[in-house]
Amino acid sequence: MLLGHRGWKSDSTAEGYVETSVENKKIIATKITGSSVTHIEIYLSKKIPFYIIGYSFGTVVGLEMISLLEEKGYNGIMILIDGSPAYVTSSLKTQFAHETETQFQTAILTKVSSFVISFDVFTQYEEALLKSKDFDERMDLFLSVIPPETRNKQKLKKQAGVAVYNRLKAALNYTFKNKKIKSAVHLFKAKYPMVDEEDGYQLSKVCDNIAQVITIDGDHVSILNNPNLVKAVSKVVQLKS
């Protein structure tokens, strides 16, 4: 099972779901995992360890899921690829530095815009975004300045933007509140992290059995293309199978 963070285009169940009201609803990792556990439990055996691989924000979802499964008497192996609750929160606070909710929402749209339009074009609308009354209005303005052909090619839709906002908001406010995880946890971290964090990404606060911490050459994105990561993860699976 692979849980990952695929950004704007993702509509993965493991990632979350689209909210219809930004103000009244939130995406919470425990809600995601609670619904998922019911579906995957029929494929598990309490005699055979299961595997969960999580990348980026998916590590948070994965840890929540493995915690719920442990409560039901299952034992698993968690493989974390450059992520942990502390690391995800710290990196988001760095990438989307803000003092107000308005600044946070605008920072998200600024980040997304950097992939689809020039900085010069976006800065012309930045003040208007800050003055918009809420995220719904900001999304309307943001999408209006994206050329239709780019919007269609990148599948940029208001619904997806709201989903991204809610995921980031939930991650920023996330706190692991369950019992410490007993299952073995393997962390594969990037050599060039997004933020300075202790060697084990503070996993000792949520996990009792940290089997290994291995550094993979690359940054948060490029490590996914590093064949050494594939080999290292495969080795863990083969050793335990």
Quick synopsis:
The protein is of the alpha/beta class and 241 residues long. It has helices at 29-40, 57-71, 85-95, 101-113, 119-131, 135-144, 148-153, 158-172, 227-240, and strands at residues 2-3, 50-55, 76-81, 184-192, 210-219.
Question: What keyword list fits this structure?
Answer:
241 residues, alpha/beta, Rossmann fold, 2 domains, 9 helices, 5 strands, 45% helix, 14% strand
Strand order of the largest sheet: 1-2-3-4-5
* CATH C-level name of the largest domain: Alpha Beta
Strand content: 5-15%
Estimate the global geometry from the Cα principal axes: elongated
Helix content: 40-55%
Extract low-pLDDT stretches: 4-28
CATH fold type of the largest domain: Rossmann fold
What is the CA-based Rg, rounded? 19 Å
First-to-last CA distance: 15 Å
**CATH homologous superfamily assignment of the largest domain:** Alpha/Beta hydrolase fold, catalytic domain
Structural class by helix and strand composition = alpha/beta
Order of helices and strands: EHEHEHHHHHHEEH
What can be said about the biggest beta sheet? Answer: 5 strands, parallel
- What would you call the quaternary organization? single chain
Task: Indicate the mean pLDDT.
Answer: 82
CATH architecture of the largest domain: 3-Layer(aba) Sandwich
How many structural domains? 2
